[in-house]
Amino acid sequence: MKILVSGDIHMGRTSSRLGAAASLGDDAHSAVQAWGRLVDVAVNQSVGAVCLTGDIIDGRHAFWETTGAFRAGVERLAEAGIRTLAVAGNHDWQVFPRLTVDLPSDWFRLVGRGGTWERVTLKDAGGRPVVHIDGWSFPSGRVTTDPTDSRDLPSDPMVPVLAMVHGDLDVRDSPYAPLSRQRLRDCAVAGWMLGHIHAPFLEDGPPFLLYPGSPQALDPGETGSHGAWLLEVVDGRVETPRRIPLSSVIYAAPEYDVSSWTDFLVDAKAAMVQTAQALVAEHPTTSVVSLRPVFRGRTELKRVIPEELAAIDEFSDSVDGIQIVVNRAQDQTAPVLDLEALASRPGAPGELARLVLALEGRALPAGAAAPDVDALVHRARRAAGLAADMDDVAARQMVRDTSIDLLDRLES
Ligand SMILES: [Mn+2]
Question: Domain residue spans in the chain?
Fold first, then answer.
């Protein structure tokens, strides 16, 4: 039996900061649409159940706009013989039970209502139990105790158990159901299907820990791949979940070294288009790439970059059907330092420039006193408590980089 796992859908929200790509006038990048694609995958994969790990609805405010879409999905799943099991999270503890109150109980089940652990057993076509799903739902908006403290469901030597709970991993004083990784690991279950953290991650087990993450990436902090996870129970064994990309938007924060660029506008655009194409090649469901680029490196173009970057948030281009937008680029470039000129100056900048020239084995200005490089590196080593096994070349490189940093600060 296959099971599709998702959570933190936050229906009612839409991917933010899409610039021109959002003014297309449709809701293509909403969490509601992602729910629809998730249902498609479940049907196409002929899964036995869809497991939802909480925060499916963004909150009470989203009741009216999401109730129909959620029902339509559950009904489509039911028509395909697929059950939907869910736990409530801190966002939807109040609204989710009300939104699902009239769904057919054969096909939809809110598991662990009111913060009491509950077991639902999934069976195959012949009525034989395949897997137990243990779940716990948020009983209120804040829960300061670890929900696993109260889990008293027995293990079963014949049938594997998957546990489903929404909570905050390894944040001990979290008001959102703090979960201890160690305690989760110590439970005799095949895997944990968790919710609350929007960035997906999987730690292998048993028991595996799976935060499926939001199927639709919702803001620029949610970089990387977003989708649902497919797992399979074969011969009483739960196999490692695998990722199914679903998000129509991918956010990324690429870093670009501009030091070899000759025209900022042309080279920055080419670099961003290339980034977008590479991302879409890996994530075929993506139609919008939202980039938050960081430009680094030492460049002759430093003087013009602020001006040329000024309107970059207006950038929008469509390449091979992929919409590319930019949100808050960062200029962390530095000017090319004229070390020779600086080295003739008095004071700290001159000292530092002479040190850098000497470290690089370059000529000092006529009449300048050569710094005692070996003694300086020796002192730096001691002052910074550098590891004894750091070789001399690395230590000199570090003194050089630190000196250039200091020069940058003195000169800016
Ligand atoms: Mn949450």
Answer: 2-246, 253-335, 342-411
